[in-house]
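Moderator note: this is an archived Q&A kept for reference. The question asked for a predicted structure of one protein chain; the sequence and the answer are reproduced below.
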Amino acid sequence: MMYHSPLAAAQAPPGPIPPAQEQQPAPGTPEAQASAKIVTAYTLPPELYAKTKHIEKIKLAFFILAPIYGLIVLWLFLRWKVGPKYRDWAEGSSKNLFLQVLIFAPLFILSLDILNIPLNIFEHWELRNYGLSVQGWGSWAWDWTKGELVSVITGFILILILYFMIRKFPRLWWFLFWLAAMAVFGLLIFLQPVVIDPMFHKFVPMQQKNPGLTVALEQMIQRAGQDIPPERIYWMNASEKVNELNAYVTGIGASKRMVVWDTTIAKMTTPQVVAVCGHEMGHYVLNHISKGLTIAAIGSLILFYLGYRLIGGFLAWGGTMWGIRSLGDLASLASLLLLLSVASLILTPVTNGVSRYFEHQADQYALEVTHGLTPDSGQVAAQTFQILGEVDLEYPDPGPIDVFLTYDHPATRDRVRFSLTYDPWSSGGTGEFVH
């Protein structure tokens, strides 16, 4: 299918999204009823409300207890002198740092992740218990194994760079390692959609799976004045593992793409899917990935500097007791991770707040880019959040402290309210992002 240029879209105002019948839920199904219902606020029936309230309590407890558990594991690593044992094995095998890290890193990372696996098992058990996941334990274990492979390879590279910098540049290691780490993370973000994600899910160009939806998405892309070829819009086979709904943008540069889960397509009409993708287009157009990377880079620089300032005193206090000779000793890794984990935990509300701001901007962009393209676009957007909330079991009434601490998206009730009230066009105005 020929892709129309943004210039052509500017010369001819786009019409309403064509009804792609293959996207409409079958008449009489719960999805069709939910799609047709006029939404005035995010509400749930009593039984579902009680279910989401219980899940909210579990999420909050997990948010508090999981980091504490992780810190306890690192503390046990120090008390049990796990690092020194692995260091001795590595140093007994070779005097070369590369070979030492090649032995040390997999042992350290796998031991740490195995001790943390009870949290992973509990999380998956809860997702299965509430019907959010349909993935069997065998498939889950295989995914965990593949994830460990990625972690070991990445961890080996970062640990090797870290201790090379610490030994060669004892006063500047925190800054030089930060530079190298940002390069590694940038490479990972580039590779994730083309190398890592396909290890876990099947991706197919949307135009091969659903030409009708592709046409509707192209109209929205043209309305946004963007040039995203159809081959960068992907269908993902999420239904083999989850019932949840989602769409997202990922990658940077040549690997940047938009991904829509097949569960989202199955439970929403074409205009609703376009509203969801309009949100993802907002992330794309507003450069949220690059902005997020910049913010993460600044935050990481602060964390590494704090680690540099605190690690000396920390090791002077307990290093001998833990069998750590110096910061340049591979065994110091657990102590450094402990300090960084504490600092990162303190910064979590800040990072969540930034994420909520970006997500709200993307919600606003979706309303603007679909205005005039989708009839009653505000109502359609509200319907999408209602469906997302019902399927993903989002609690309608989270407290402000809960949202501040744990939410990286605005609460669903607030997203519905904003969708129904944002209307700068009624007073003769225009959108902030799409004019």
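Archived answer notes: DSSP finds 16 helices and four strands in the chain.
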